User: Fold this.
Amino acid sequence: MFSWVGAKFDDILGAYVLDVVTALIAAITPLALAAMTAWVALYGWAVLRNEVPETLPTFVWKVFKIGLVLAFALQAGFYIGNVADTADALAMGVAGTFLPAGVDPATIATPYALLDKFNDDASDQIADIMKEAGMLRLDLLLAAAVFSIGSVAFLCIGLFVVALSKLFLTFVIALGPLFILCLAWRPTARFFDSWLSMVLNAVVLTWFAFFALGLSAYMGDAMFKAIQAGGGFLGPHFNVLGEATRYCVLMILMAII
Assistant:
């Protein structure tokens, strides 16, 4: 379920980013070309009149560097294929190192898949509780409800944190062409540095979201294993309602963290 939601969310964000980047590039292209033309004309004229201490090859090299910047900033497909995809790959690639031990990175490649795995494990525990639930075992029904509250709280807040980190990264990437254009000229290059810092912050936020999610899933999995080692919720060594309450409190705490 969460993988499906995540895939749809990523598809929507990807299409939206492409539309925003295309519209932004269409808006700044006339300004960029006008500024480039004026700069080449004025700088070239100053070089020819020996008003700047630079040779013609140096001038040509500067023009080439500015042209390279414009290629990144003013072509939507080139920008998405190189800058946006690289930032997304950096965010998701390193985040995979925070997976809990014993989880196959080949099968759990996204935070949404990790949420799905946790949901499946929690559902198995609830099914174990409900095996003997009935009118004569209302404590099991209450334990299942308490257990479900903890799982749902963790899954919903986990999904929110992952979606928020993805949304922030998407927002920063969508504004990229404007700030990359600022790299073309020295007085405005500091704005590109600020944007690059925002991109790295968004990437690190994604890492943190995956780290917190992985830590919470690890603790939940450890509790599941302890329950199974004791014979399950219906085993002789467990107070089913007490264990469900402990689990609920732990999951709510991890969701808040």
Notes: Helices lie at 2-48, 56-73, 76-95, 111-129, 138-174, 176-182, 189-229, 240-256. The chain has a mean pLDDT of 78. Residues 87 and 203 are 7 Å apart (CA to CA).
